Every structure is written in C-alpha cells, then in structure tokens.
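User: I'm new to structure prediction. If I give you an amino acid sequence, what do you actually give back? Let's try with this one:
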Amino acid sequence: MSASKPGFSFTPAVEVVTDARELLFTGKGTLYAVTGRVVTPSGEPIENAVITFVDEDQTTVTILSDSNGNFVQTGLSGTVLVQVSKPGYVFEPSTQTVTGATSLVFTGRGTSYTVSGFVQDDAGVPIANAVITFTFVDADNATTAVLSDSEGKFTQSGLSGNVKVTASKPGFKFSPEAHQISGATFLVFIGEGTTYTVSGRVQTEQGEPIANAIVKFVSEDGNEIQTLSAADGYFT
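Assistant: Good question. You get back a string of structure tokens that encode the predicted 3D arrangement of the chain. For your 236 residues, that looks like this:
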C-alpha cells in the first residue's frame, strides 16, 4: 500500500500488509515554484496585474506582474489556486489550480470605461481648448483626442486597457506630463503659461520701413499687449 497527494512526499513510501492492521503515513509538503505571464490577446504584456495564490489552508500571497507581464512565486506546496485581476480588465482563465511547478498564462481583455477631468492653471482658472490625448498602450499606441471645453472640462468614453493621457496647448506646460490609467477615474492637469518672443518688421510695398506703427498682440483670453515699430520698421 502507498499514499500519494500532489505536493507531498510520504513516509513510508510503501507498506506491505498480510493481515488487518492500522497504518500511518506521514506526509511532508514539497515546495515548488510557479512562473507565468499576463498578456493581452495580441501578446502585449500587462504590467502590475495582481496575482494571488491561495493554498489549502487559505493562506494568501499576492504579487504583481512586472513590466514584461512576467511573475514568479516560490515556496508553494500542495494544491494552490492562482487568480489574476487588474482594474479595467477581464481575464481568461480567471483562475487556475496548480499542484506542482508549472508555467501559467493569463490573457486579459480591456473592459470599456470613461474618464473625465479638468484642465486649469495654477490659480484654478480653467484652460479651454487644451488637447487631451489618449494613447492606447495595449493597442500599438493608437490615439484619440478631445478638447477641454470653456470650463476646462473633458470626458472620453470607450477606453480600455492601459491608457496614457496627456494634455497640450501652445504656450502652456502641463503637470503631470502624463497620467497612466486602466479604469474609470477623474484627472486634473495644471497648466503653467510659458512665454516667448515675437519680432518682425513693418514696411511699405517697396520695402521702406514704417516707423511708429502700432503692433498689437491679443491673447485668447482677450488681454492685449502693444508696441511701436522703430525707425527702421522693426519691432519686438
């Protein structure tokens, strides 16, 4: 007679019996490691997926997939349930059961979600017409974009998977440079105005300078700056 169970070695290995008797087999858990990868249907890695290992005693160990979607867990024994999760994804399979060293693959499909947000300057004033770009990291970096409205607000639906969100507008530098998202959330971009210099010349059709011409600069918010052309027609 012998006893067996995945993840255990038993002593004695075999008992020979010829009559009625009581037997005792002592089992010692053997340790093993499980490796694996979490990917999209196209094979792109899914970073920071939560991998959970639950053993027969309901002891739980949690790790994250790395930037290549890989994970490894050592020191496992017996029958272990392996689960994967990440906001914005559904996984196939959602769980796998292991009893010894093996390599697993979980495939995650992005679920659709909506992101909204606000673009403002450091004084809290809305910034209209900022370009909000959404880059689909899991889909060959395809992009879509919307504009912030007159109140600095924006909304984008139909997003899935890992998405990088950036804001841009001429004359502004935004903080943070990008948000990394994988599910419904609310984002805020703070824009700091950057300054630049414009120079030029005012002249006649014959190229003669026109002095004291009023050169007016009007910003998007209606502020005006004006200067005069010099004797040689130039202004800055």
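You can read the tokens as a compact description of the fold. Here is one thing that stands out. Residues 200-235 form one domain.
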